[in-house]
Write a structure and sequence with these properties.
Low-confidence stretches: 195-212
Helix content: 40-55%
Strand order of the largest sheet: 1-2-4-3-5-6
Strand content: 15-25%
Mean pLDDT: 85
Structural class: alpha/beta
Radius of gyration: 17 Å
Order of helices and strands: EEEHEHEHEHHHHHHH
Shape: globular
Number of strands: 6
Number of helices: 10
Largest sheet: 6 strands, mixed
């Protein structure tokens, strides 16, 4: 595992392969280990980097509460430190929403977006009552050991047919969750991609069409 310094602290990452740069952003309650199969399978074609978000895995805990924009700027700092931009940027769940924000704030660093399980932020995707319930649950569990709540989340993470080793790998990462990492759910709860100003939306559409 390697590390770089950003404006919000040390960010750790895993890297494998050579070729076009591909940066992978993991989901919430996780870390870069979730991309282990992709690091192995794509290394023959890409320079694959899987980051640990601030507060997750080998990255340092942030010293202050972060907005989604802070996470996006940390991703940009990592890309610049590695000297690999523009990158293919892939994200899952929270990482997918983050990837969208990275593109919005630092589009010159992004070659393409690959979004898995993407959503417009909790606020942009769910009824207000559901957002409040999810956020309250997450905040309450920050003060409890992960072993007490991990299994209640796992049941809803996967479809019916999942190799046991995949479930166990996810459980292992979740048992390592620290409060500072779980707090990434807070900016996810308040984020709403649909609330962009019209001129920002039009600019994003024009940029996308220009890439076709």
């Amino acid at each position: 595992m390697e590390r770089v310094e950003t404006h919000i602290g040390t960010v750790a990452y895993r890297r494998a392969g050579a070729g076009a740069p591909l940066l992978l952003l993991h989901g919430g309650l996780s870390d870069g280990r979730s991309w282990t199969p992709q690091l192995e399978s794509l290394a023959h074609e890409y320079d694959v980097v899987a980051w640990d978000a601030p507060g997750c895995g080998g990255s340092a805990d942030p010293t202050a509460d972060l907005r989604l924009a802070d996470y996006a700027d940390a991703v940009a700092s990592l890309i610049r430190a590695l000297g690999v931009g523009p990158v293919h940027l892939a994200g899952h769940s929270f990482g997918a929403g983050l990837a969208i924000d990275v593109y919005s704030r630092h589009r010159q660093l992004v070659r393409s977006l690959v979004l898995s399980g993407a959503y417009a932020g909790w606020r942009g995707s769910l009824p207000p009552a559901e957002v409040e319930a999810r956020l309250n649950r997450a905040l309450a569990e920050l003060n409890r050991p992960p072993a007490e709540w991990v299994d209640s989340y796992l049941a809803g993470f996967f479809g019916r047919f999942v190799p046991p080793e995949t479930v166990q790998a996810a459980r292992t990462m979740m048992l390592d969750v620290r409060p500072a990492g779980a707090l990434s759910l807070v900016p996810a709860a308040g984020h709403d991609v649909n609330l962009q100003a019209p001129e920002e939306y039009d600019a994003a559409v024009r940029a996308f069409l220009g890439m076709l």
